Amino acid sequence: xxxxxxxxxxxxxxxxxxxxxxxxxxxxxxxxxxxxxxxxxxxxxxxxxxxxxxxxxxxxxxxxxxxxxxxxxxxxxxxxxxxxxxxxxxxxxxxxxxxxxxxxxxxxxxxxxxxxxxxxxxxxxxxxxxxxxxxxxxxxxxxxxxxxxxxxxxxxxxxxxxxxxxxxxxxxxxxxxxxxxxxxxxxxxxxxxxxxxxxxxxxxxxxxxxxxxxxxxxxxxxxxxxxxxxxxxxxxxxxxxxxxxxxxxxxxxxxxxxxxxxxxxxxxxxxxxxxxxxxxxxxxxxxxxxxxxxxxxxxxxxxxxxxxxxxx
Length: 312
Hints:
Blueprint: H1 4-16, E1 18-24, H2 28-41, E2 45-51, H3 54-67, E3 74-76, H4 80-88, E4 107-108, E5 113-114, E6 117-118, E7 120-126, E8 149-152, H5 158-171, H6 174-181, E9 185-187, H7 190-199, E10 204-208, H8 209-217, E11 222-225, E12 231-233, E13 238-240, H9 247-257, H10 260-268, E14 272-273, E15 290-292, H11 298-308
Parallel strand pairs: 1-2, 1-3, 8-9, 8-10, 12-15
Antiparallel strand pairs: 3-13, 4-5, 5-13, 6-14, 7-10, 7-11, 7-12
Protein name: Extracellular solute-binding protein
Pfam families: SBP_bac_11
Keywords: Signal
């Protein structure tokens, strides 16, 4: 036993140390808050973060895979279709659900990727520019909202890609053509759009709920409207890659995101936590009528780009 003790201790130290690489489209300040909390529990672990819009994150990883040198241990972005593609190629590690009470409906692919909090696409209103807020998606077609509306670029934002796919399927692609006729503008990302909405450059936005709450907490005159016909629940799961050099640490980070501490951080930063019993974000409704997102396929995205003069 004495001869085995140093080896056991060495294995434990090796597990407690290392560098994880995370590729994500999540807001960097929110990711950093979670990374700092994780490192406080795991002081020997470093976490390197590459953060950009979902489109750029996916493009970077595709290029690395083609070069035979993929880097991330963990993936966390809003493109479930790409994760399904990786899963079909055996490039995601199956992680058994070990966190007590985790809602099984959020473990996708038999444990290949996990939701860690909920993100909705909603209608956001600058209350100083819009007196009567819309209550459903079709309300955006009212002439009173002409020239007031914007949304993010679906080539950059995975959440916007979900908006285009979901509303095209539910309301027809002509819905976006009519919004274009009413002067809808396209901004690069949700954060840029939300800041312009807060400044009053727009009166309405199709955007993420948590970001609007973050701007409102700073004093911006913004309100979140969950459409009565269903806010768009955007999948943004976390996955551990099959090529990870530190899979045990990667799983530890994933499990940390489901811990009470991390779930509280999510709520404080405006997100709905995924774990039962976790606090709700301040000012958010107890329940949301949601519809699961459908990401736009390449043909629909091409039509959208042609309509708004965007380039992929």
